[in-house]
Amino acid sequence: MPALMVRIPQDQADVARHRFHADSYLPLPGLLTADGLDALREEARRLERIGRRRDFTMACMDGSPRHMTTLGGQVIARESRLIPDLYADPVLLDLLGSLTGERPVPVPDPLERHVLNILHRKGDTHGAHTDDYPYALVLFLEAPENPADGGLLAHTPRAVSLSDLDAGQARAVHHRPGDAYLLRSDTTAHRVTPLTRSGVRRTVLNFAYTTGSVTPRATPSARELYA
């Protein structure tokens, strides 16, 4: 199998770890190799055919909207070898360990381990939320070229509540296909801004990890979105 990710030298990882601990967010531009992006994009397109359209508001996340197509980890594990293999890849786990300072381990619920999120209609959005587990690695397979088209990550680290996203504290970030980011996702309020026009797409894989030192939050959000 061709290399799917670019290796990050240890000295760069050390600098990145300090940035991540300060910001709870770390951009990883160009993390996917050209071969990796092509392979994962082809796999996502195949899996999208069995994805499920979601259009609802999530009560446990302050009634924030979900307008997107999703596929949960339990289905991905059954239908794909590539994605679960990458999720558990020792090279990727070593990288995440060097960036977080902790040894990441798979989350216990297969539903949440690796999920596919696709925004593909005008107005599609993944509304305000925090995650049940501490670390999210998000891999971009498709993304709007122009930030004005939406699909931006908006995030507020160490948020007291989801309303912090609307209090002038949120940072909005644009990513390109092949990029990734690492997020301290259980304490960072975050959302994806709505797509502003038809004809653009945002397709991401979200890999969730935990550690032995963290007690996961118990919310029904993942089951509402991916079950």
TrEMBL record:
SUPFAM superfamilies: Clavaminate synthase-like
Alphabetized Gene3D superfamilies for the sequence: q2cbj1_9rhob like domain
Taxonomy, superkingdom: Bacteria
Record's protein name: Fe2OG dioxygenase domain-containing protein
Organism: Streptomyces lutosisoli
